[in-house]
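Entries read chain and fold; for instance:
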Amino acid sequence: MAVLRGPALSEIVIAFVAAFAALFAGRIMPDLLSGWRRALAIGVLRAALIAVTIYEILSTSIVSIPASEVGVVRKVYGVANLAPGHIVATKGETGYQAEIIPPGTFRISIFFNVLNQVDLLPIVVVPQGFYGRIVASDGESLPAGQIMADAWPDDQAQNFLDAEYFMTHGGQKGLQLSVLKPGVYPMNLALFQVKIGYIRNGRDIVADSDDVYDLRGRTVEQTPLDTSITRVPAGMVGVVRSSVQSHGVDCKARTARTDNDGLTAELVPQFCKGVWEISLPPNDYYLNRDAFDVTLVSTRVTTLEFKGGFSRRYIDLKVDAHGDFTQTERTASFPVPAEAADNAINTKIEGWEIPQELRAIVQITPENAPIVVAAVGGQQEVDQRIVVPSIRSLVRNVYGGNITVTEPDAAGKSVTLTRPTRVLDTIENRAVLEQAILERAQIDGRRAGVDIKEIRLGESVIPPELLLARQREQLAGQLRAAFVQEQIAQEQRQKTEQARSTADQQGELVTAQIAVQTAKLLQEKRQAEGHGERLYLEEQAAGQTAQAEVLGKDNVLKLQQLKLVLDLLAAHPEVLANLHLPQTFVAGGSGLEGPAAVLGALLKPSDATGK
């Protein structure tokens, strides 16, 4: 703090003495000189005394305030004293005056610096992201039971910072509920003390100290004060717990409930003392941390993981070149990750200890956030005191109880049945287990004001002995499948070789195929000819039978003989040239006797002479 100029009565005395001496300079001038020399000396003396008088008067009357500071006036000589308990005067009493001298002021007020002392104090600067905490050193006393002065409306902010208006319009002494928003303020630091704390709960620390503005000027203090703005990020709401109550508001509390038999809490309307029934949506708020405690509650879908915290045994199977199995055992430890809500849930199924990893998707709705905070605390308390223990208990109950599944019966028909949970259900019926846990967890979640949206099972730490038979079966099946594939490949290779050999002997195969086809055609021809001959003979026999019935068997025989002779002669006409036709006369007869006699004569052998 700098003092512009303190009161100096000696300067006033000097001014009056100099003025009096100037007035009576002729009388006090010694008679050592005479004539014009005396008159000149008196004139010079009078001018000097007048200059001293003017200087002394101006030095106590000029008021000049730098542009970066304000002048806080303390009246030293006044006509009245301040009332007991007050330190700021509004009616010209002795002491600090409510009215300040603004920055950049220059004025002349006769003997002002004699009657008053002007303290040059800095302008209050509140940076972005913070507010100024105000304490008033004067004003009306607070009512009984009230810990902070009433808030000033936003449209009265300028009047609130005007010390004279504050003192004459009901301003209250002590810690103010109203705060200074970011900006530059020329304030009367005799009335107001302003603190700005730069600690942000360990995040985005600008400084580890406070700026303090008061009559000492701007100083630095090492305190844990935090005057950062209240920032409600996106995806969250702010639940306000207030320690003050505004006037003119009906602050009747109501009992709020999350569910029929869920959490209950007493909530109050906004600006009342207690937990507000309406939470703050995402935004920045200039809330006085001395009066309002804001708990941030996430309304996003969040994940609770139950993971790690167990040791797991493995039995590794290997197959050698001969197809024989060998097995080795090993153990691995899984610690609990830092981000996990809790370790894996230890369950018991069919007498086996089964650590089960799990992930739960949960959400707190904005409507339930005030009830949850008032009844339990913050979101971490809700998770650790309600949600996590509830899920652990429900998983154990489902794994140690019954589940409803659809399975084939002895006839192969699908039937729905309820049976005890089995170890291998954690592999084969995971969806059924997840749904059973979710349905139960949602009921408990609604009671706690938490919406449990999803349950997903993670790793099930099944004892390796239970999986060994299945692993051996799988390996055997894979070996069998590999053998089948090799067999198919071998057959395919043989077919390929056969096709290649067939292609190489294509000419011979074509010739053989033609020969086969020719033989088949000849066979078919002979069969056709034989069939025709048989038909011909059958028809011929039928004709001969008919002839025999008409001509008689002997005549038919003779006719056949004749036909053969005629056929022979037709085929060999030269036989007729060597024949000697007989002189045979046949008379009578009614059949073939004549032709037969002629034929008989021809066939009769001649004697030795040819006669």
